């Protein structure tokens, strides 16, 4: 793909291999945010003047854009600040109504902390128990164990679509069908998959889906919760305040219809506008093309990394553009520091997935992740920087 020139930040000498942490932004997205503030800035759903209506129209049309992108209805989309907030919303709103003492919630060993900790907080409060689908040695979810655990009829199965550490692509559609047979609802964390695969929520039939805008080439500070309409309509508010009410009295209030019920306070309008532009950009480039490009880069990089004896690679070939490895016995932070001297940006650490690190038996890994702006040339630069790191560490 020939899109690097559309990303202002990548005109510098950095080799950006950390898109799983946050994606770089194309100029059209940056311009859309700037243009919102220069030409349309007003608060939404309240200004009785043309500018206020313009801002409201932009905000609501961004919601429609997001909805169309993932095959949802417009009122099934709630704007939040990120994926973390979306999961906390479900845990606090749906969770406190539906999860009771002795109930179970099923998670997996591949989850990001944001799909673990909110459930721990809920489980502790109500006296529920968390169960985990284990991973195989290839970094795939163990499907046999999943089939056993789902028969225990947890209240919810919350699973990542693509692992932010190993890049594993989970067969969520199959999992959801099996969960539904057992009357279990499913939340999909699509933070890593929305930027690189086409998702249709009606087709996979998930009950909840969350993603974060900044990994999908949108601005930071905007994220999305999708929930099936009948679920959302029966959920109580998560945050209280302005914009989410019908009537406020001294002792009690009535609440707005969805999705406004879940959007208390002034929303990130410019963020929503920028995310809608990012979605236009993704669609213009073609989700299929992006997926294919990242798949080829991943294959190329894994092959090169495997050729290095000092490198231990984690995860499977069934991978969506995210690769974890370690170099000899060196701590990942030290490796990343040497790569940084060559202007190579990689993530090193536990990647907000400490339970997965424990399972892999390491404190940290180096993680390389691709975006549509990366090329084989970037992989070659990474490999020569690794050669330098080997010399520095005498490996
Ligand atoms: C799989 C996954 N889920 C959730 C998150 C949390 O995203 P955010 O920090 O934007 O809420 C991340 C971010 O790294 C992620 O990779």
Please provide a written account of the structure:
This protein is an alpha/beta fold and 395 residues long. It has two domains: 4-26 and 286-392, Aspartate Aminotransferase, domain 1 (Alpha-Beta Complex), CATH 3.90.1150; 28-284, Type I PLP-dependent aspartate aminotransferase-like (Major domain) (Aspartate Aminotransferase, domain 2). 41% of the residues lie in helices and 16% in strands. The chain contains 13 helices and 15 strands. It has helices at 27-40, 50-70, 83-98, 117-126, 143-150, 172-181, 201-204, 229-233, 269-285, 287-307, 332-341, 354-360, 376-392; strands at residues 15-16, 77-80, 104-108, 129-133, 156-160, 185-189, 208-212, 223-227, 245-248, 253-255, 311-314, 322-327, 344-345, 347-349, 365-369. The strands form four sheets. It has a seven-stranded mixed sheet, sandwiched between helices. Strands 11-12-15-14 form a four-stranded antiparallel sheet, covered by helices on one side. A two-stranded parallel sheet has the order 1-13. Helix 2 (50-70) packs across helix 9 (269-285) and helix 10 (287-307) runs parallel beside helix 13 (376-392). The longest helix has 21 residues, at 50-70. The protein starts with 14 loop residues before the first strand and ends with a helix. The model has no long low-confidence stretch (mean pLDDT 97). Pyridoxal-5'-phosphate (PLP) binds at residues 82-84, 112, 114-115, 160, 164, 189, 191-192, 212, 352.
